[in-house]
Design brief:
Blueprint lengths: L35 H5 L8 E8 L10 E8 L6 H11 L19 E4 L2 E4 L11 E5 L5 E4 L2 E3 H12 L21 H11 L6 H4 L2 H5 L5 H13 L7 H8 L13 H5 L6 H16 L2
Parallel strand pairs: 1-5
Antiparallel strand pairs: 1-2, 3-4, 3-5, 6-7
Helix pairs in contact: 4-7, 7-10, 8-10
């Protein structure tokens, strides 16, 4: 995602005054600082002050230089990093850039480096982290500003390069025709691989992707495994070999398992990469 503000929210104007915290105790909007009663429950445990350090840089702003900026705020019960960043932007610095859409770990927009590890900000509870937290944008992807990166541009390029869509025999699809039946077990296997949200965490954690600019990454190899399973796709293993049977594809993976460790949806990425590699090796020996 390349947006720095949700669709229903106007772009942030850094010259406007900082908005006062939301005073409605029943609001729970998540777009302003948390109401006081949200923090009342935290009296049962020690109140913590979080110090969140953000790597800031706007490549589109003349004279901007990469630098670290630290923000302090009081922790609330159930607070996520997304909620903390929203409170910082609403009450301390409206120019802070980061991405979000769903706030439920579905869209993948809020992926960033949390203490050096790729993660989704909306799924990271602050109570599971130390009081000192360091945030940085995902590497590999084009930087928009601060914590916002253009994962959409990278994912689209990968999708077009590997043709990650169903290749059917029919030149024109009859939309009135009933969909072909599929074995439930096979449908479950396809669904499991289709749960990828293209957040970019696996790419950012990949050592090969950091060294080889054209490496397709685990997200792409997972898609190849998914379409290889799909009975509606007419492509053969030879066709898939032409797409990923080189060092920029499946043979470029160094099996460091970084992608497998950081995937927020816990997809079996290492297993799928190993499976595709075995199939491509078998073809290469023919």
């Amino acid at each position: 995602m390349s947006t720095i503000a949700p669709a229903n929210q106007a772009p942030i104007d850094s010259s406007r005054p900082v908005r006062e915290p939301c005073t409605d105790p029943a609001c729970g909007c998540g777009k302003r600082s948390l109401p006081a009663n949200a923090r009342a429950g935290s009296s049962q445990r020690e109140q913590r002050t979080l110090k969140i350090t953000v790597l800031r840089f706007n490549p589109h702003e003349p004279g901007s230089r990469p630098h670290l900026q630290t923000f302090a705020l009081e922790e609330a019960d159930g607070m996520t990093l997304y909620m903390a960043l929203n409170e910082i932007r609403e009450t301390q610095d409206p120019s802070l850039q980061f991405d979000f859409v769903c706030r439920a770990g579905i869209c993948g927009s809020c992926a960033m480096l949390v203490n050096g590890r790729p993660a989704l900000a909306c799924r990271e509870l602050t109570q599971k982290l130390d009081t000192v937290i360091t945030l940085a944008p995902l590497p590999v992807f084009e930087l928009i500003g601060d914590l916002s990166v253009n994962t959409g541009k990278w994912m689209r390029g990968m999708s077009e390069r590997l043709q990650t869509w169903v290749h059917a025999q029919e030149a024109q699809v009859d939309l009135r025709r009933l969909e072909a039946r599929m074995d439930p077990e096979l449908a479950d296997q396809i669904y499991e691989l289709d749960r990828c949200i293209e957040c970019g965490c696996c790419v950012s954690a990949c050592g090969t992707a950091r060294m080889r600019e054209d490496f397709v990454g685990a997200v792409a190899l997972n898609k190849i495994a998914r379409f290889r399973l799909d009975p509606r796709d007419t492509r053969s293993d030879e066709d898939f070999y032409e797409l990923v049977g080189d060092d920029d594809g499946v043979f470029g993976c160094m099996t460091l398992l970084g992608c497998h460790d950081v995937c927020p949806k816990q997809l079996p990425l290492a297993t799928q990469i190993a499976f595709i590699r075995r199939k491509m090796v078998a073809l290469g020996w023919k």
